[in-house]
Amino acid sequence: MARAKHIPRVFVTQALAEGATIELPDDKRHHLATVLRLSAGDALVLFNGDGAEYAATLTTADRKRAEARIDQRTTPERESPLEITLLQAVARGDRMDFALSKAVELGVTAIQPVFTARGQVKLDGARLTKKQGHWQRIVESAAEQSGRLICPPLLDAVDLSDCLQAPADAERRLMLAPEAAAGLQAQAPATRIALLIGPESGLSNDEIERATAAGWQALALGPRILRTETAGMAALAALQTAWGDLAG
Description:
Blueprint: E1 9-11, E2 21-23, H1 26-35, E3 43-47, E4 53-61, E5 66-74, E6 83-89, H2 93-105, E7 110-115, H3 125-146, E8 158-159, E9 172-176, E10 192-197, H4 205-213, E11 217-219, H5 228-243
Parallel strand pairs: 1-3, 6-7, 6-10, 7-8, 9-10, 9-11
Antiparallel strand pairs: 2-5, 3-4, 4-5
């Protein structure tokens, strides 16, 4: 028996509506027409973060242009009831890519990359702009592949000290700390959460003190030390299991 053909999902920023025909951005055109070798008549699914997804048909797909006709709007329930902003310490290379991708798959609402005192990655100027673009592509790809209805905003990387109050409406601010006295079971459930993941060598004492003064609570995830790219994934899975859409 032949396998059903995979229908690609594509994140766009344009407004979408049934019956409309839109031109796809060049990077999406390249992926669909050149990498996947789709052509006019092939199906795809579009989403733009409005809470819906749109079945569509390619009407044009070549080296210069890709257009899609929107056939149907649906509103599946795939987003978690939790609103989680992840503050992720910038890590080297593939570790950061992995952390971002898995955070999107596990339902994070927004991502704030942060530079920390013990972090080994220092970026600024053109190098930071290039890296932000790379991270954005990682986030979009993960949102497309995991069936998200939104593409979580990837905020500009800043020093941790500049964003300890963000997001302003967080009900709970949690930072992973292996030496913390309590785990997630000691926390009362919340729906708007900020989660801070430090670098490979951990947050500095000064950063922990500043975070604590800003209302962050230390959280342990068991007796073992987790790498920075694993810690966020484990914490998000635990939160979604305890309070979100992985429960039961």
